[in-house]
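Researcher: Good morning. I'm working through a list of sequences from a screen, and I'd like to move beyond sequence-only analysis. For each chain I'm collecting a predicted structure so we can compare shapes side by side. This is the next one on the list. No need for commentary yet; just the structure.
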Amino acid sequence: MTTMTGTTQATRVIPGHAKPLWRRMLLTRESAIIGLLVLVVAVASVTVRGFGQPITLNYLLLDIAPILLIALPMTLIMVTGEIDLSVGSMVGLSSVVTGVAVQAGIPFEAAAVIALLVGVVGGAFNGFLVTVVGLPSLAVTIGTLALFRGLAVGLLGTTAVTDFPETWTALAKARIAGTTIPYIMVPFLILLVVFVILLHFTPFGRGIYAIGLSKDAARFSGVDVERTKFILFMLAGLVAAFAGIFYTLRFGSARGDNATGLELQVIAAVVLGGVSVFGGRGALHGVVAAAVLIGVISSALRLANITSDVINIVTGVLLVLSVVAASVLNRLQQSRRRPGRPPRVTASTAT
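Model: Good morning. Structure tokens for this chain:
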């Protein structure tokens, strides 16, 4: 006869789920950005004259629409640990392609399709150099930033195309009936839903996070790392081209220097929204909140007669602070974890 005097059962607790659900949902960088956005809006509405007017919301959304659009694929790219600095130049190139095509007598709808194809080809070119040739995305997209901008300026020079169908230019600035929200928010919301599902609720999205945490581990887990990155760069080119078409219609002008520097605002929104510059971490709701926050601050400062140089300085400071804050928080979390800490153990006795 054998008697069992006691057994022990070890229960491992995943660190990310050891805290209550409400803490995991509220005590995050994304929640902090949303709270900061609410605070800034409240303060600006009280202190800045004219900020609370409905027309301000309309112009705010029109201004940040390209940033919101491009930030969606940029978030996925940066979660993998890569970056695309050419998106601003692609906005300019797609704008010029649309203008040149319309100037040549091609219907606007066909010109827009051509511009979207140019965006896909440009994104595929970036993806090919990164995934097939094996070059760093930072170096590749710095080069294509100059390449796409050079093509845009070379096609039009210092001239501008302004002859676009009034129906389309009016639609780009029109508001949804009964509201101050521009129609551009409709395609943005559709794309937002698509990218949220893609990143947070599909195996493809889990592969994106896995790549950001460890490319080798992701590859051994069955994730096609190269194909995933290639698709993301193509999506970035496509969405940037769409943003370029909107940019052209909103201002009624196709120029080679359209959207110069836009890529920095997009990256600022993505990093400020909680996406790690090293990959493996981030969520789209934080990025959207950060993009709106940057737009609110810029709008409030403009209404307060602050120059654009100061606005750029404020945006840069926010970007630096977000990177520093993320680094400090990571170190604090690591210091609080005891090395070699044994798993939580629960004892049970059977006789």
